[in-house]
Amino acid sequence: MNDGESEVNEASPADALKPSEPLSRERLYEVVWREPMLRIAERLGVSSSYMARVCTELRVPRPQRGYWAQLEVGKAPDKPALPPSRPGDVVVWSVGGTFTTRQPIVARATRSAEVSPIPKFRKPAFDKPHELLVGVKPFFLKTRTNGEDGLLRPFKRLLVDVVVSEATLDSALDFANRLFQSLEAKGHRVCLAPGNTRMRRAEFDVREAAPTTHYYPRPWAPDRSTVTYVGTLPIGLTLFEIAERIEVVYVKGDYIPVRNLTADQLRRYKEPYHWRTHKYYASGRLCLQAYFPDWRAPWTKQWRESKPGQLATLILQVIREVEGITPDLTTRLAEAEKKAEVERIAREEQRQREREEAERARRIKARQEARQDILNAIAGWDQAMRIQAYFAAAEGAIGGLSEAEQQLVSGRLEEARVLIGAVDPLALLKQWKTPDER
Hints:
The chain is α+β, with helices and mostly antiparallel strands and 438 residues long. The chain is built from eleven helices and nine strands. Helix 3 crosses helix 4.
């Protein structure tokens, strides 16, 4: 390594890294190409593999294995450019931050001229799973005991927003893949909402024609919304299975749909041990809900299946409607932000008026207290002067008394002085504070 390069490493910006300070993706890109990941990780108090995940999260290309040895002999590949951030990307990270990105970005030994840009519009890649759907099925099947509606409640919460039964899981994930790939092909990124944002997931009721007075437990919900970015505007996506009201029979602690029973079971499951009732149960039909995850401009739209498989034919319609609503949402959000700014200014002005009024009240009170204290000081002065005059007059009058009376009066004067204590006419004035000192 030449002297110039050695000087660069000695002045590495990673020296100033602090675990308590947020790290931008531009800053991270700068430091990971200055020195090995292990040194950076040591300064931040984490492992090098953890730092590699941070690079993945912030979409920062990092040196491949062996890069620093190649650099020593002058055979290292060119440093790739930092890709621009996309809508929904995490752009600032702090130690302890969470991760959502699956695909690593590692620099390869290729010339920049050979790298072709990704086209904005392309044919949907239905033959491979979308990034959010890679290997998720086992996590959905690792679920809590199914509720009476049959919908899955996975233990894992960092999952795509899909709420369905086990029987419908495959078809739901297949539709989600087709939808996500179609959105990506139109240039609309689909991802989990960044962890440092507060995106509101719109509520929904899985029940078909649900009664408003009947309690129904809330279905499973992921930790983060699934969103697609139309430009820079996020649109939330929830895919859930509709629950229909059907007849069920009680069998050994569970309610089983009557439609799923065989003829022999129908004959055996009779009252009084096996009673029948009606409950909401997964229907096999899906509903896609799109929504704006900002409470300042509420918007929700649902597309429901009347028979299984219908949603797949509505993907282009869904995309058109989502694209069509974004100008209105953008306008409404801008108006809401403008209104919020006006309200913020009004609140700040009100707080300023309250502060000024409180200051005026404080000054008035300080003047009143200062005036009362000086009056008390004047009264104390008068009392001190009278005490001094009294003792002086008494001492002058002692000379006219007999010797026995002089001894008696002198002793009593000494005791009186001790009882009164030291008299300082200026004591209260010394302690007095002016209005500005209060």
